[in-house]
Design goal:
single chain; 245 residues; Rossmann fold; 4-stranded antiparallel β-sheet
């Protein structure tokens, strides 16, 4: 009877963990400025993203997509509403807690933001400085494995100037994966890429979501990649309009 009770409790805990969304926003509002200069950007945002889910955030420029992404990524403080990310309550988090949340998230941006004076290997390995528990030898090995996994094992010591746009974005993906993230946030990762390079990038992200159970929230205007989404959420004038898929 004790074993049965223990197993039942364990199963309940597992089910609860699976049911807990990676992202849960409830009535989130956000504004820039104060007083008469205040401009509200987000209005009553409610959304959830489940573990392993790929969700695309679409909508016209200026609709608040990137602002929402920065709130979820703990890059800005939530002032109005409730936002839980990976089990952390961001709406009442301290600066130290926000930094801790960022360490669990992989960020991928349109401009890839690689340091031009570092090789592909060095750009990725730099991320391990945020994780001193990883030894230099392990960091070097993991970096090579990550770049190889995104198809750049033959470009480890190339500087960004010698890489194509698609290859640079692959380095950015490898860098985002260096921290073994529990969530990927991507802001227009295919916007500057040709059709094939963009497809290769989203295929890599899709494999990540499926293989690791890592949820992905991606801001995009790219109609070529809509088919990878589990759900598409449209934003307009700072408001969320859930789509269908």
């Amino acid at each position: 009877m004790v074993d049965e009770a223990h197993n039942s409790t364990a199963q309940t805990a597992i089910s609860t963990a699976k049911a807990t969304p990676a992202i849960s926003a409830r009535h989130v509002n956000f504004a820039f400025g104060e007083g008469d200069l205040q401009k509200q950007i987000l209005f009553d945002i409610n959304l959830e993203v489940a573990t392993g889910e790929i969700v695309l955030l679409t909508g016209p420029s200026g609709s608040g997509k990137t602002t929402l992404l920065t709130l979820i990524g703990a890059l800005r403080k939530v002032r109005d509403g409730e936002l839980d990310v990976l089990g952390h309550h961001l709406h009442d988090a301290s600066l130290e807690e926000l930094v801790e949340v960022r360490r669990e998230i992989g960020f991928i941006f349109q401009q890839h933001n690689l340091l031009p004076f570092l090789t592909a290997r060095q750009n990725v390995q730099l991320m391990f400085h945020l994780h001193p528990e990883v030894s230099p030898d392990d960091a070097s090995r993991l970096t090579a494995e990550l770049l190889t996994s995104v198809g750049l094992g033959h470009r480890l010591d190339y500087y960004p100037a010698r890489l194509s746009g698609g290859q640079k974005q692959r380095v950015a993906i490898a860098r985002a994966l260096a921290a073994n993230p529990k969530l990927i946030l991507a802001d227009e990762p295919t916007a500057a890429l040709d059709s094939q390079s963009g497809r290769d990038v989203v295929n890599l992200l899709q494999e990540l979501a499926r293989g690791r159970g890592c949820p992905i929230l991606m801001v995009t205007h790219d109609p070529r990649i809509l088919d990878v989404a589990d759900r598409i959420i449209n934003m307009e004038d700072g408001r969320v309009h859930p789509g269908e898929k």
